[in-house]
Amino acid sequence: MQQVLAAAGRVILGKERQIRLAVACLLAQGHLLIEDIPGVGKTTLAHLLARLLGLEFQRIQFTSDLLPADILGVSVFDREIGAFRFHPGPIFAQLILADEVNRATPKAQSALLEAMEERQVTVEGRTRPLPVPFFVIATQNPAHQIGTFPLPESQLDRFLMRLQLGYPDRAAERELLAGADRRTMVAELSPLLPPAALQELQQQVASVHAAPALIDYVQALAEHTRHGADFATGLSPRAALGLLAAARAWAWLERRDHVLPEDIQAVLPAVAGHRLHPGAGTDVAPTAEEMARRLIESVPLP
To answer: Does residue 226 fall inside a structural domain?
Structure first.
C-alpha cells in the first residue's frame, strides 16, 4: 500500500494527505465523495485508484436525463429463448465512478442508495448481489454551480468520507505543466495488487485494536454533536461506526496495530464534515476543518 500511495502521489501532485485519506476510505470499506470545482483532478484520482488496485472499473456520467435503469440495468425480451433477459447496468463493477453525481435528478441519485448501503440492487422484484469488493467514488460540483441538484442527507450519510482536492501549490502546478499528460500516466500504470489481496488488507484493517477508552472518545464526539448548540444535527450511529473504521485504516497506514486519538482527529474532518451543519445564529458557514476543530476542542481526550 505504500507503493500505491507513492505511485498515486506521482500522478496527483501535492495532494498526499487527500490521497492517503482516499486509500484509507477504501481500506475501511467505505464510499468516497470528492467535491470541488471542475479540473482539479477528481476523475483522475478515481481512475488512478482503480488502476493501481486492479479493480474492475465503470464510469457513470450523471446528467439531468439519467434514469435509474441506466444505472441498474434493464430486462429486454429475447426472442431466441422466448423470455426476458436481464442486462446488468454499469453498477455491476468493483469500483464505480459516479461522475458529477449532483447533476442528476433525485430519482436517479436514489438508484445508488441500496447499492451503497447493502451492496446489492433490487431490479424488477429480484435482488442481485454486487461484486466484491464494491466501492463508489462520486464527484460533485459545488452546489452554487449551474445545473446541480443537492444530495439528500440520506445519500450524503452513505459516503464514509468527503474530500476536497483544491488548487495545487505553485511548485506542484509547475511540475504538472512541465510534465507528461496525467491520463497517459494513468494508462501506463500496472496494478500493484489483485482485488483478492485488497480484501485481505481490509480484514487486517478491521482487526486493528481499538481500546475501550478510544471507543468512549468516539462515542463522546458523536454525543456532543447531538446535544451541543454548535450543530443543528448530530452524527448518526452509522457515522460513528464509519469514524472508527476510518481511524483503524489510518492507524494501519501508519503501521500501527492499535488506534490512537490522533487517528480519530486525523480523519474526523473528512468523515464528519458533510454530516454536520452549524447551529442557529452562525453568520458564516464554517468549513469541515473548522467544525472538526471545534468538536475536538470541545471533547476532552480519554
So the answer is: yes
Report helix, strand or coil for 120: strand
Determine the Cα–Cα distance for residues 47 and 96; give it in Å rounded to an integer: 10
CATH code where residue 215 lies: 1.10.8.80
Domain finish residue from 135, 160, 195: 195
Using left for φ > 0, alpha for ψ between -120 and 50, and beta otherwise, residue 164 falls in beta
Q: Note whether residue 176 is domain-resident.
A: yes
pLDDT in tens, 106-139: 888 888 888 898 999 988 888 899 998 899 999 8
| Last residue in a domain, options 149, 172, 195 | 195
Amino acid at 161: M
Cell numbers 461506526 correspond to 241
Instruction: Identify whether 261 is preceded by a cis peptide bond (ω within 30 of 0).
Output: no
**DSSP per position, 91-110:** TSSSEEEEETGGGS-HHHHG
d(CA 34, CA 281): 28
140-181 pLDDT, tens digit each: 877 666 667 778 788 888 899 999 888 888 888 888 888 888
Tell me which residues of the chain have a pLDDT lower than 50: none
- pLDDT at site 255: 94
The residue segments making up the domain with residue 90 are 2-195
Q: What share of the chain is helix, strand, coil (3-state, %, to 5)?
A: 45, 15, 35
| pLDDT computed for residue 281 by the predictor | 60
Residues 38 and 185 placed together within one structural domain of the fold: yes
The pLDDT, as a whole number, for residue 143 is 62
Domain count, the chain: 2
Segment holding 58, helix H or strand E: strand 57-61
Residues 289 and 220 in one domain: yes
- What's residue 284's pLDDT? 61
What span, in angstroms and rounded, lies between the C-alpha atoms of 87 and 247? 39
